[in-house]
Amino acid sequence: MSRLLVKSMLLAAVLVIDIAAWPALWAEMGASLFLRVIAAFAVLAGALLCAALVQNVVLRWTYGLVLALGAWMVLGYRFSVGTATSYFDFVTVVDARSSLIDAFALHWLGLLAAGGAALLTALAISLKPPPTARRLAVLVALIPIVAGAGIISLLVERNGQGRGIPASWQGIGYAGLYVVDSFHGLAGARSDVTIMANSAPPDRDIILIVDESVSANYLDLNAVGGAYSGLAMKRPNWSTRDFGIAASMTNCSMTTNVGLRFGAGREDFQRKIARAPSIWAYARNAGMRTVYIYGQRGGLNENYMTDAERELIDEEIYFDDIALVQRDQYIADELARRLNNGKPEFILASKAGAHFPLTGMYPAGGGRFMPEADISTLSKDEQFWKLYRNNYRNALDWSVGAFFDRLFSEAGQNPDTAMIIYTSDHGQTFYEHEDPGSITHCRKDAAMEEGAVPLVVLETGTQLDKNPKRDSNSHYQIFPELLLAMGYRVDDVVRDYGQGLGGGADDPMKFAVQMHLRLGIPPGWVKIEPEEVFRPPDRAETD
């Protein structure tokens, strides 16, 4: 059998994976647009064959490895999640690469299958081709470069819409667009703080605790028999405002975290992140010391933190040498110590929380919700998710309930005056409505539970309204609430950032789906209807 035939058969086997998606594309696009997609597919399939016919060994292997990596990135998501890979999905995977270990634990079969397809791509291209005439060889070598540049240009023009492109080229195009996107900021320098604060610095600690993957509807604050939060009981010298189920900014970790730090709004999310002062700038301008406590994977510059932003942080605390299961306990100890140090500080704490796949996120064998799901199982069916919800509630008992028990115990009975705002970056869906899928958040077709987060304010030295209006607030009110606590004028804060918590009309309770930070693609919005949000049963779920 000729080498050309072998290489062609291997490439055809890889392309069949993309061809399998054509019926869905036909139904979605209609005949006219679909035929254009098929024509582009044929051209790119030819460019793939040209890459396989390159005579220069180094260049051919480079093409093979790059195209194989592109295929693995795109197919890994498609095989794991069961939906086409969008540019937003690609960006999310790349930017959340510190969570790759967690993703592999839950989606190992899909990632391995994609790895097999990528290996087939690399093999098809890298195998030695039959000889080619010199002039033709030069043309063949250039065609993949032209094709790659064309794909990137097409994706820029189409705002990242890459449906119907062969997976290897789709990955290359997304990677190229990612580079272009990285230099595509909103014009203008970041502004300084321009609103006035009180002449005297705040005389208390102001703390924002952002948990990871904590759904409000699974806590005892909002569900009978829910996971233990440690916040449903009265604590000595602390008053509590529980705002019930609130809407997150987005259903993805990174965009929500950066949005909270820059006071992003629904109408100006990208602009605020690109050009507005950070919460650190406002805290410093108010005369406060700034502290960042980080307990998740990754460390420096996660959640779109930049070196320029970090210059405004007086102290950073990480726990890279501490096992994940213990990091929230260490954060509780650190916060407790600072509540008693006599120095008013603004502190932002990012907890380890209840991140998928939950393995190693809470002590083994001690959960009260049993039986638990085996995350290594191939089938992520209704029965799996029913048991996985037990895993999740056990994780919440530890990451939320045990955390606050330790914080209030260690803080003692007489902490310095302080305000703590507690929330989570996003909620979770465990396919409670029997919809198909296998990822718990950051989905394009998001369930409302993905944006349902807890929102609780605790304060010392004051008597708060114990019954604030519940189920009618969102993350978009947290930044103005922090500024008001720092002493900034109400009129200025409301003008630039809107109302704080409980400060006026009810929030729309909508969270963003596919929120791009730079590319000019409008997000989708999902409204939370609190009375329709799933509530878990008051006991462990069983087979």
List keywords for this structure.
eight-stranded mixed sheet, 543 residues, alpha/beta, two-stranded antiparallel sheet, 16 helices, Alkaline Phosphatase, subunit A, 44% helix, 2 domains
Describe this structure in words.
By secondary structure, the chain is of the alpha/beta class. The protein folds into 2 domains: 3-182, no CATH class; 205-532, Alkaline Phosphatase, subunit A. The chain is built from 16 helices and 10 strands. The chain has an 8-stranded mixed beta sheet. A two-stranded antiparallel sheet has the order 9-10. Helix 12 (307-310) links the parallel strand 3 (289-294) and strand 4 (315-318). The mean pLDDT is 87.
Within the CATH hierarchy, at the fold level, what is the topology of the largest domain? Alkaline Phosphatase, subunit A
> Looking at this structure, what is the CATH superfamily of the largest domain?
Alkaline Phosphatase, subunit A
Mean pLDDT: 87
Question: Low-confidence spans: pLDDT under 50, at least 5 residues?
Answer: none
Strand content: 5-15%
Q: Note the run of SSEs as H and E.
A: HHHHHHHHEEHHHEHEHEHEEEHHEE
Question: What is the CA-based Rg, rounded?
Answer: 26 Å
The CATH class of the largest domain, by name, is: Alpha Beta
Distance from first to last alpha carbon: 54 Å
